Each structure stands twice: as C-alpha cells, then as structure tokens.
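Subject: for your reference before the review

Hello V.,

The reviewers asked for a structural picture of the protein, and I figured it would be easier to keep everything in one thread rather than splitting it across files. Below is the amino acid sequence we used in the manuscript, unchanged from the supplementary table.
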Amino acid sequence: MSFNNPNRNNPQKGGASYKITPFRSYSQMDNTSALATFQSLASAMDEIHNRNASTLSFEELYRNAYNLVLHKHGNLLYEGITERLTVHLRRCGGRLVRLQRDIHSGQSAVIGGGGDAKSNAAGSDSLLQYRLLEELSKAWTEHRITMVMVRDIFMYMDRTYVPQQRKRPVYDLGLWLFRRVVWERSMGDDEDRVDESGGLSMSNVNNSIDDGHPTMTTTTLGNVASTLLLQVIHQDRLDRLDDAPQRMALLRSLVQMLLELAHASNGAYADAASSFRRGGGAAATAAANVSGVNMPVYERDFEEAFLGESQDFYRVESTSRLSHGISSETTNSSSNSSSSMGAANNDDDEDGKPAAKYSAMEYVHRAQSRLQEERVRASTLDLPASTRAALLRIVETELIERHARTLVEMEGSGFASILKVVASSPAIGSVAAASGPGGGVGSSRMMMPAGGDSSESSVVIDHERIKDLASMYELFSRVPSS
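And here is what came back from the structure prediction:
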C-alpha cells in the first residue's frame, strides 16, 4: 500500500512523497532451520580443527550464531559446541594414549633384546621419554589456537546466553573439556568414537566424557605426563639432562598448561560441582574450595608431587654428603623417607669428589649453589610465587637446618673447630676487626666462655644463628684459612 502526496510536485507546499510499507510479522526460526544452521557451524568447527580456517567466512558464521541465540536456540548451540569439541578431543586423547602405549612397548622391546639392542637402550629411553610430552604440548598449543577462532564465532553467545545461564564461556569450555577428555583420560581408554545416537544433548556429552573416566586408583594420561615431568627435573638436578634448554622450555609450556587448565576449572558455573566430582574426587573438590587456592589441577597433579620429590632429593643428597658426621638417628630418618628417584644422589659429585668427603665449608658452598640453581629453575619454569617460596624453603630446611649441629661440630672443619683455631691464633685481633661489630667471627665472643677457654667442651654454640643459609655462609667465609 502506498500513499501519494498531492503536493509532491510543489516544493513550496512540501512536495515530498511518502511510501508506507506493510508491517512484516516476526518470524521465529523453527527447530529444523535451527538444526540446519547449526550444522553449518559444526562443519566450520571441523574445518578449523583440520586447519582449514582460511576457507571460512567468519562474518557469515558469526551472523548464523547470532541468529540462533536471537531466536532462542542458545541451548542447542551451546550443547552442539560442547559435543563437537568433545569429538575432536577424544580423537586427540586416544591418539596420545596409543602413542604412550607404543612407547612403552618399544622400551620393553629394547630391554628384552640383546646385543646391540641393550647397548642402545640408554639412548633410546632418553629420546622416548620426551615423545609423549612433546606431543601433549603440541596438542595443547593447537587446541588453544583453535579455541581462539571458535570463540570469535560465538562472541554474541558469550555476551548474552552464557552469563544468563551460568555457563562457561566458549574458550574456558574448550580448556575445561581438554582437561576432562585429554588430561584426565584413562590409559585404558584408547577409543576415538563418541556415541552420537543421543543427538545434541548435554547428558549424551557428559556420558561420552565419563565413559572410561578414571577413578582415584586408575592411571590417567595426566599421571603419566606428571611422572615424566618429574623425571626430567630430576635429570636436570643431576646435570644429566641432554639438550637442557629445549627440555626445560618444553616443561615450562606444560606447567603453564596446567595453570591455565586450573584457571578454566574455576567459577560459579552450573556444572562446577559435577565437574569436580567426576574429575578429581573429594580431594580436588576440597582443594578447589580452599580460600585463595585457584589451581586445583596444578596443585593436585604437579605441585604436590614436585615439592615432595624435591624434599626427598635434597634429604638424600645432604645425608650422603655429611654421612661421616651425621648421627645415626638422622641417617635412619633420611633413608626411610628417600624415594627411589632420589637414591641416585649417592654417586660422586660433578667435581669428582666423593659425596661423604665434603668439609663443612665445601658443603656450605655446595648448598648455596643448590639454592641458586633452584631459583633459576623456578624462574625458567615460571612457577607461581607460592610454589617458588615452598621450594626454596624445602632446600634450606633439608640442606642447612636439619644439619646445623653437624656442620658446627664436624671434626676438623666444623665451626666449633674453626673457633678453636681462631681463638688460639695471634691474628684473632685482626680477624675480629675485619669482621666488624655484631657479625662474623667477631661475634664469636658471645659464643666463647668468658675465661677465654677454647677447649671443645667449653664452646657454647648458638644453633639458631646458623640455621639460615646466608648467616651460615657469612660465619664460615669470614674465617681465614690456616
């Protein structure tokens, strides 16, 4: 219908013409059209996973996703995205499980072989143990790139439907699924297929995630990867790590992966309780609920084991280097708590000196070197501040605090013996002056009896003053060599 203005040809009387168009009624997208629209989006996600994103029109894909949400099909879209991501991640997880199985079979064949096979066993193991970590890191990197492109398509859903329904944003959803489907994948589950007979329902997706999902006693892909991470760190501490910069860069990427997975698992989402219940059991749920703790996956699967292994390593190392001077009680305690991985520390040191031949001064130098090595290692791996503080505290405790009395009383080179030499030396005055008031050997007056008796039985030792590594080094370094 149109309305013609009779004054249209007379500019003075307002000759503009008007055209009234019929009102167009709102047309709701039906389920059939919605499914067809989503199938085009699902095909695009498949192309992105196949690294063919350059062939796609992201503007058109964004408009299709926008229309689905606008026409109240947000639930269909969100569940469909979850299902497609799960399909691709199950294929990725199955490939990694089969790879680790092949690696394990290859190692068994080398061990079981003879002649040349056994002679090449060490080199073969050195290469094979990194294969899973390399492939896992590669899969993680590709998944993150994929999720950035997928997120761009569904930005409108992230802004509207997701907060209204308390769902995870698309990018976080992808990371959460990587944790559930890949990292927590049971080593006994190498199937790629997802049962899609149930359509695009969230319950069907959850069932595909839970199929073969590990219990607290089942070995997962994450368990295997965490063990390999600790083995690489152990070899680095022994200075036996080939191509160390490249290997530590690999470890850094995987540690950052765990931190990001932990971050994506947090939040007041509608599926948060069930995800923790299925994912990590009561321990993970409790860890996630601790105030200020935002890294349940990282803490559960890496940090706890890393700090425990570090404590065992340095307990064995310190005990072996001071074995001639340590009491039997300390030795028994250390040997009972040491792990099989840390038992290798009983070998000669890198400088060729037998571990038990260290003097107190050499031991302090070595302890200080170890502390600096751990600082550098923590920085290289980009560990969180809480992990770094706990690690350095463990090194100080195991190398110095537990052996403070031994370092003081060690025969011939301990602090008490050095005090005796200094007290009887004509140069004690110059040493005291050089050390300055309140520090170094100059402060040994408060540790010696008033009568100047320098016999070993009369030396009073303030153990609290030498617990800290810096104080211990200061006390020893200020004493002149005889």
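For the response letter, the relevant points are probably these. The radius of gyration is 33 Å. The longest helix spans residues 74-112.

Happy to draft the paragraph if you're swamped.

O.
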